[in-house]
Amino acid sequence: MAGGEAGGLRERKKRQTRALISETAIALFLEKGFDAVSVAEIAAAADVSKPTLFRYFPAKEDLALHRFSDHEDEAARTVAAARRGGVAPLDALRAHFLEGLTRRDPVTGLCDHPAVLAFQRLLYGTPALVARLYGYQRRSEEALAGELGGDPLAARLAAGQIVAVTRVLAEENARRMAAGESADAVHREAVAAAERAFRGLREGLPALRIS
């Protein structure tokens, strides 16, 4: 087997193992509650050793928040791809969020799938997970600020506003889903709220020379 193929296979197996451990942990957390499940129990259920588990997930909270890790640099990647196509950062981020609403992407909060609702109850009902989630959001801001470039302070201020706006929009959508409303019924209002929020960003960010 060629070196490239072997390396690709190893990476694929690592991703599969990481996903298996995380999904096993989440299933146990949903069944018993986050605090009632030990790392040793998760390792046994996933058929891996504790040292192996900790190589993939340094902290117990990371087992539940693995689903967010792929989204940490999503805003930054969206801006980078848009710039290659000549699209302004804020236009790209607005379009990306609206597309997420259409897809019922759980990251936008507009998803009423029972498994997603159960996971959100677990997440927002567990203080340790909420606290850990702020770390993911901070790293998202840092990645976006780095991609926006220019004056470092202006980039940080802009990234903070953009991430905060999308977070609040997602939380409001998730709140309505948790209250029993359907994603289809809320979609139009969620789009209107997003448009209003991004319009506010568009009016404010030019002062930082970012649009």
Put the structure in a nutshell.
By secondary structure, the protein is an all-alpha fold. Helices cover 77% and strands 0% of the residues. It has helices spanning 3-32, 39-46, 50-56, 60-69, 74-84, 89-103, 114-124, 127-148, 152-178, 183-204.
Task: Explain what this protein looks like in three dimensions.
The protein is mainly α. 77% of the residues lie in helices and 0% in strands. It has 10 helices and no strands. It has helices spanning 3-32, 39-46, 50-56, 60-69, 74-84, 89-103, 114-124, 127-148, 152-178, 183-204. Helix 1 (3-32) crosses helix 2 (39-46) and helix 9 (152-178) runs antiparallel to helix 10 (183-204). It is globular, with a radius of gyration of 19 Å.
Keywords:
10 helices, 211 residues, 77% helix, 0% strand, mainly alpha
Topology:
Elements: H1 3-32, H2 39-46, H3 50-56, H4 60-69, H5 74-84, H6 89-103, H7 114-124, H8 127-148, H9 152-178, H10 183-204
Q: Major β-sheet, in short?
A: none
- Estimate the helix proportion, in percent: over 70%
Instruction: Sketch the topology as an H/E string, one letter per element.
Output: HHHHHHHHHH
Q: Any idea what the shape is? A: globular
